[in-house]
Amino acid sequence: MGKKVSKRLQALLEKVEERDYAPLDALSLLKETATAKFSEAAEAHIRLGIDPKYTDQQLRTTVALPKGTGQTVRVAVIARGEKVTEASNAGADIAGSEELINDIQKGMMDFDKLIATPDMMPQVAKLGKLLGPRGLMPSPKGGTVTFDVASAIAEFKAGKLEFRADRTGIVHVMFGKASFSPEDLLVNLKALQETIDRNRPSGAKGRYWRTIYVSATMGPAIKVDINALRDLKITDVA
């Protein structure tokens, strides 16, 4: 038996046609379908023509969302000496050295993003089993292993996100809140599209972009016209 669809979702599904929507129309519809009782996120689900089991077809990078994420990001920094003070002064919610590593080992996970300086990574490595499954392990590709902790903190608090293609070649990424204006969501979605194009894996063959759907957290999937999104100039929407 199939899953029972709620009346709320059934009504929303009837609003969405099975066709490619112009980007702005898709985002206006996303807002209309965000009817849950909480502040829903705007999500993009992008199927790419890559097979991530090959190292030259993997995609892992960061995107700076010009209009922010709409979320408060709690940043923790593992560093040493002056860098701990620098991190605190730059707005880190938590900053420390070995004692912070010990706290995390004991289960303290009161943060959304963990930044580490390169000299601390050998010690941070032992947290892999705890941090890895939660997607919190610092990595150079993710912009979270750096000596420039002040810039990294500022960027992640302002709307920088780390994302990767899953093992089936699909990227799932939140690109704002459903409460944003369609225009602001489009600016963020465009930044995401440009980042994915810029970081096209060297081994990607054939058609790179397969499909892109957007949705509110609890809303139906809305198909976006990929070519229209890629052809769009950001000056048209900013």
From TrEMBL:
Assigned keywords, A-Z: Repressor, Ribonucleoprotein, Ribosomal protein, RNA-binding, rRNA-binding, Translation regulation, tRNA-binding
SUPFAM superfamilies: Ribosomal protein L1
Stored PROSITE patterns: RIBOSOMAL_L1
Gene Ontology CC terms, in alphabetical order: ribosome
Superkingdom classification of source: Bacteria
InterPro entries in the cross-refs: Ribosom_uL1_bac-type, Ribosomal_uL1, Ribosomal_uL1-like, Ribosomal_uL1/biogenesis, Ribosomal_uL1_3-a/b-sand, Ribosomal_uL1_CS
Subunit-structure text: Part of the 50S ribosomal subunit.
Protein name per Swiss-Prot or TrEMBL: Large ribosomal subunit protein uL1
Gene that specifies this protein: rplA
